[in-house]
Inverse folding.
């Protein structure tokens, strides 16, 4: 921890925040740890597969650059200026700017949204945990697509097995959050991210040896807009928020610990680039395997669990690399899940006057319980489509609905509010002061994107999906 960390004053009340990141690098690692997770390796490939490939990827990349990155800068900026949990930060900043206290609704949206996301995120994290053991015992060796598919089917079919792994994953997350996020997190991410990169590169290398590499690449990168629906565009935009951990107050919480002298633009660009790179590498690893084995790109949430084991089953040293890969996937999911629990816990802790450990237990137990809905959606309740009477929600289970509600509605809405708050509600000079870029061209481009492009983009996509 740096010497500045105990001397910086966070807000007008003179409160001290002795918990700053030790360096710019530490923040980048932690924010990347939050951003890179199941969203990149599990979700990106399967929604790309479901939405026809190239055109979807193009829209997603545009959303990252034109909407996600500007909003990330805004969210980190708000967090650093406010210096607290999202709700308190919004309340304080609104009071200081002399505007409506209703802006703290944005903080609420984040706390509730993180709560819901973590409830299903933890169940999927549990799948990854269970695959560590499956891989380590050599189950993938020589297995064909049917065997691998059956393995996954058995996992989803057993509520008690899913419950066990969900519980274990949630416990892992709670342990770190109860102890205070930064200490453990900084250390873990330092080696985690590079290791994940290396393993993904290896998988891409394997995919290159299949005769379907070209087909995979063209699936990902040659856009065919006839395959992209308006819902696909919404999914791409929602995913830009999900994968960058935006709109939930997570970047606000992490930004609150960012030392003043660090450039928000630089760290945000670094985080967005790494996140995008990991997602694209995952896509490059997975689609060649999908095509080489005659699998269906639109197979849904099980995609990586039904394709990567085939690669591990065929490559030399596959048992070892497969195990390592799933261990790293668990770590990546873990650091993201920690960032999802943090806003909830920091709010409970600061507002209910209970200790961090108790707050973690209370919040964690509630989220764990809500996770049961996702578990049952995968088996006993898989035929239950609560909103099936609306065309948009036809065939969607509770799990699908929670995913839709958060990624396609709450995150973009949160991001929209961040953009409006930083772009229109806060004074330009205080925004400029916090970003420290002066009135440079970079600043003006960012400000223009934030004030016009981002809100209009989000609204247009919303409206198109309503009509
Ligand atoms: N960005 C994380 C991922 O891609 C998920 C996440 C969403 C984390 C929102 C925090 C907030 O897996």
């Amino acid at each position: 921890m740096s010497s500045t960390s105990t001397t910086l004053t966070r807000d007008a009340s003179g409160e001290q925040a002795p918990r700053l990141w030790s360096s710019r690098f530490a923040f980048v690692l932690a924010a990347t740890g939050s951003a890179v997770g199941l969203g990149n390796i599990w979700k990106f490939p399967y929604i790309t597969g479901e939405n026809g490939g190239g055109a979807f990827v193009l829209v997603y990349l545009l959303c990252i650059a034109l909407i996600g990155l500007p909003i990330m800068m805004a969210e980190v900026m708000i967090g650093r200026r406010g210096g607290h949990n999202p709700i308190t930060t919004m309340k304080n900043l609104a009071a200081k700017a002399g505007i409506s206290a209703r802006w703290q609704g944005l903080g609420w949206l984040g706390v509730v949204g993180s709560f819901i996301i973590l409830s299903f995120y933890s169940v999927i994290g549990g799948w990854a945990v269970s695959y560590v053991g499956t891989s380590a015992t050599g189950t993938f060796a020589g297995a064909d697509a049917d065997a691998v598919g059956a393995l996954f089917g058995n996992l989803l079919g057993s509520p008690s097995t899913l419950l066990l792994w969900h519980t274990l994953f949630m416990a892992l997350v709670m342990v770190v959050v109860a102890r205070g996020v930064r200490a453990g997190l900084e250390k873990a991410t330092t080696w985690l991210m590079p290791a994940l990169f290396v393993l993904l590169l290896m998988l891409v290398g394997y995919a290159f040896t299949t005769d379907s590499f070209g087909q995979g690449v063209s699936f990902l990168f040659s856009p065919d807009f006839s395959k992209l629906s308006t819902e696909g565009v919404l999914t791409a935009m929602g995913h830009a928020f999900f994968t960058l951990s935006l709109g939930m107050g997570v970047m606000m919480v992490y930004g609150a610990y960012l030392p003043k002298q660090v450039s928000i633009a630089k760290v945000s660009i670094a985080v967005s680039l790494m996140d995008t790179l990991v997602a694209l590498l995952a896509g490059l690893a997975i689609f060649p395997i999908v095509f080489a084995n005659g699998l269906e790109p639109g197979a849904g949430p099980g995609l990586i669990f039904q394709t990567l084991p085939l690669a591990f089953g065929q490559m030399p040293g596959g048992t070892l690399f497969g195990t390592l890969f799933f261990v790293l996937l668990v770590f990546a999911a873990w650091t993201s899940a920690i960032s999802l629990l943090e806003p909830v816990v920091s709010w409970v802790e600061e507002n209910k006057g209970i200790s961090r450990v108790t707050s973690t237990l209370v919040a964690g137990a509630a989220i764990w319980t809500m996770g049961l809905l996702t578990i049952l959606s995968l088996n006993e309740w898989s035929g239950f489509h609560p909103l099936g009477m609306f065309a948009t929600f036809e065939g969607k289970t509770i799990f699908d609905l929670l995913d839709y509600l958060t990624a396609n509605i709450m995150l973009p809405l949160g991001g929209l509010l961040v953009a409006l708050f930083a772009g229109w509600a806060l004074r330009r000079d205080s925004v400029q002061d916090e970003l420290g870029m002066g009135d440079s061209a970079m600043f003006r481009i960012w400000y223009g994107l934030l004030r016009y492009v981002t809100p209009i983009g989000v609204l247009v996509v919303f409206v198109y999906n309503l009509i």
